[in-house]
Amino acid sequence: MNNKPIGKKEDQEKPDYSLLYYPWLEDTIRVLMHGAKKYGRNNWQHLDEGIYRCASAIMRHAAAILSGEYLDQETNLQHTAHIACEAMFIHYFINQDRKKTQHSIATNFTEAPQSVEEVEGMPPFSTGYPQDIHRFSTSTADSAQNIDLSEGLLRQ
Fold first, then answer.
1. How far apart are CA 121 and CA 90, in angstroms?
2. What tens digit of pLDDT does each residue of 127-144 get?
3. Measured distance CA(149)–CA(138) in Å, rounded
4. Where are the domains of the chain?
5. Higher pLDDT residue, 17 or 123?
6. Rg value, the chain, Cα
């Protein structure tokens, strides 16, 4: 009979770092270290139009992969590690933008908006993308539509 106590830990909802592929994580950190040496530590946090520029960098690295180039020529590290860094930067910019927007909303309203007019007076959520990124056109055999996502309008 085993009377040894059984340990218990309530960590089911906590991040499970064992799911990470550590060689990828280490390469991603190497890309960050390269950037810190070249531009200064955390310099990326001060980029103008950060989301737009980082998304463009992701596309450039993805295009290199799709053309058969797996290692970045400057760092000799995989393009996937560069993509991971750029995705982290975008995550940071989105969180920073939400904090600014939430702070602005909290300081402009003492209680929840009660009318459409009050909501329209709230500052817009900025993604860092140029304004036209929210507009696109689509056409099918049956109809053509201009869609404006920034205002949630569908125009025919």
1. 27
2. 444 444 444 444 444 445
3. 13
4. 21-111
5. 17
6. 23
